[in-house]
Write a sequence for this structure.
């Protein structure tokens, strides 16, 4: 139950394995600390705080003044703890550092891979917004094996929706010229403006039409009045989810 709470079911297999490794390292460190704390408290009858503090400064070899006056049994326990536990502590901290570095490198490499794949797209589709309507468009394109890239400002939604399915995406504002150009708008076949706000969709359509006067633009509108404005901005087709049920 704890594992499923920490790792959502829509995470990729590699992400689940990575998080599972992180959890194992943390549990090893916590177990190592608890064992030492309980040992000192039981042997020396010290307070929980002093026992924990004693173990932390021992494991980290900080060397401050001992908060607990150790008996012979306590000294033997610390010797045993250092001989067998210091290696565990060092290993855990080392693995934790490596895990953090791997996560950062993996993220960088994945972004570079995706940027390269997007830059190679031609006659593709650009979907602005990964809400319900945008996701439906993506599913439609994916089922028909049409190349497409998603643009959205919500990074968490992009990761949960696109990474699991292997969809190309860009984290950014679709109303930004640079973001649309990063999506290869000059070589695109069509664009779907499926952002939740009518004003944003008008701006996307205006910008997209300026950057690519020839391709098809489909846009979402909340009502007929907004739809007229979006058509005047340059959309070839306007869809209202409230009328079409999209």
């Amino acid at each position: 139950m704890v594992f499923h709470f920490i790792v959502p079911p829509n995470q990729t297999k590699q992400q689940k394995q990575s998080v599972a490794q992180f959890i194992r390292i943390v549990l090893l460190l916590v177990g190592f600390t608890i064992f030492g704390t309980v040992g000192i408290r039981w042997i020396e009858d010290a307070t929980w705080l002093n026992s924990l503090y004693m173990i932390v400064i021992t494991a980290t070899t900080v060397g401050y003044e001992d908060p607990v006056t150790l008996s012979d049994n306590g000294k033997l326990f610390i010797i045993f703890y250092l001989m067998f536990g210091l290696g565990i502590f060092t290993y855990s901290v080392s693995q934790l550092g490596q895990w953090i570095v791997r996560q950062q490198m993996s993220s960088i490499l994945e972004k570079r891979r995706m940027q390269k794949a997007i830059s190679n797209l031609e006659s593709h589709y650009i979907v602005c917004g990964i809400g319900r309507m945008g996701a439906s468009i993506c599913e439609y394109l994916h089922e028909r094996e049409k190349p497409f890239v998603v643009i959205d400002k919500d990074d968490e939604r992009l990761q949960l929706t696109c990474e699991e399915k292997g969809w190309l995406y860009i984290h950014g504002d679709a109303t930004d010229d640079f973001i649309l150009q990063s999506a290869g708008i000059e070589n695109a076949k069509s664009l779907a403006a499926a952002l939740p706000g009518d004003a944003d969709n008008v701006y996307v359509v205006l910008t997209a039409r300026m950057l690519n006067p020839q391709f098809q633009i489909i846009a979402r509108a909340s009502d007929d009045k907004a739809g007229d404005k979006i058509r005047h901005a340059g959309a070839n087709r306007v869809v209202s989810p409230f009328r079409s049920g999209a």
Notes: The domain at 121-244 is CATH 3.40.50.720 (Rossmann fold). Residues 72-119 form the longest helix (48 residues). The chain has two domains: 2-114, 121-244. The two ends are 35 Å apart (CA to CA).
